[in-house]
Amino acid sequence: MSKPSDSVIWGAVLLVIGVGLLVWNLDILASMEITATWVVVALFALSGLAFVFSYLNKRSAWWRLIPGFTLLALAAVLFLSARGAPATWVAAVLLAGVTLAFLVIYLSDREERWWALIPFGSVAVMVVVAALSTRPAVAPALLGAVLFGGMGLVFFLIYALARERQRFGWALVPAATLGVMGLAALAAYLPTALPALAEAQRLWPVLLVVAGAGLLGYAALRASRQAPPAVELPPAAETAVAPGASVTTVAEEEPKPRTTRYQRSPITLVDEKPASQEAPAAASQPTGAAASGEVPDIYEFLKNAPPEGKQ
Predict the structure, then answer these.
(1) Phi and psi dihedrals of 2, rounded to 5?
(2) Where are the domains of the chain?
(3) What are all long-range contacts of 159-168, with beta carbons under 8 Å and residues at least 24 apart?
(4) C-beta of residue 168 within 8 angstroms of C-beta of residue 158
(5) HSE of 57 in the Cβ direction (CA atoms, 13 Å)?
(6) 169-198 as b/e, with b when 16 or more CB fall inside 10 Å?
């Protein structure tokens, strides 16, 4: 009850049910028993319909289906009791109402509300067992076979109806366990129903052997289909390897020539002169520099400069 409105609804329902049962037990309306019965039936039916319609207005509140169908089932139980129906059938109707509630919950969202199949199947199996128990000739072994086999079928349906079966592989464990128990109970019942099968009763484990072999074959077939195809790589080129040499070789790269980012230009202290003065200046230069036509470097100039005292 996360909201105040839910508390109001549940409080009103419990109040009405409590007052009705109290009046019924105290025989306050004994003279109006028939009328009171129909009034109670109508109250239960209207309350159940109110829950169902409230769910239709808000589909996320799935829990409202449980009291809704339960109240509708109680109205049917009171109606059948007033008509003098057998108690077993009355109980079966009540359980059927609960079963229908969980079935609708599952169908409203099969992917997220898969868990509703468990109470749905459990209660449905109980309804079948209750209906069979009304017959006095039914052996207890048959009831056990129906109970265990039906519960095993419920867990198998959880796996079979799932969209992503890999998530629900766990359901096969209780399904197989309950299924084996159901087969054992059925094997105990068959000699009573069919005496001709009394000798074959000891051979019923053959069914388990066949089922196990079938599952193993199916698993092997799937594994062979899902195996990736073998990929053949082209043969590598064979090269002669010297004795004692390493198999793994790394090609050596030739060193790249060093390149300087810039080249130093010679610094000269010779002022540029007009063309008319170039000839006398050229005559005064050393013979090697004039012959080569190069501008004297600063280092050569300082090297060949006369001392300061002899100027």
Answers:
(1) -85, -15
(2) 1-85, 86-192
(3) 161/110, 161/114, 161/117, 162/114, 163/110, 163/111, 168/114
(4) yes
(5) 6
(6) eebbebbbebbbbbbbbbbbbbeeeeeeee
Q: Is the pTM of this model over 0.70?
A: no
Q: Give the other-Cβ count within 10 Å of 262's Cβ.
A: 5
Burial of 239 (0-12, 13-18, 19+ CB in 10 A): exposed
Amino acid at site 3: K
Question: For the chain, how big is the Rg over CA atoms in Å?
Answer: 51
Q: Which residue has the tokens 């990736």?
A: 228
Average of pLDDT values for 32-38? 73
Cβ-based neighbours of 143, under 8 Å, separated by 6 or more = 129, 132, 133
Dihedral (CA of 116, 121, 124, 129) sign: negative
Residue type, 110: R
Whole-angstrom Cα distance, residue 133 to residue 130? 5
Encode pLDDT of 216-252 as tens digits: 887 788 777 765 555 555 665 555 555 555 555 555 5
State the alpha helices, DSSP H only, in the chain.
Answer: 4-25, 33-57, 65-82, 87-108, 117-132, 140-160, 172-193, 205-226, 278-284, 287-292, 298-304
pLDDT-derived band at 177 (thresholds 50, 70, 90) equals confident
Q: State in Å, rounded, how far the first CA of the chain is from the last one.
A: 117
Q: Are 161 and 120 in contact (CB under 8 A)?
A: no
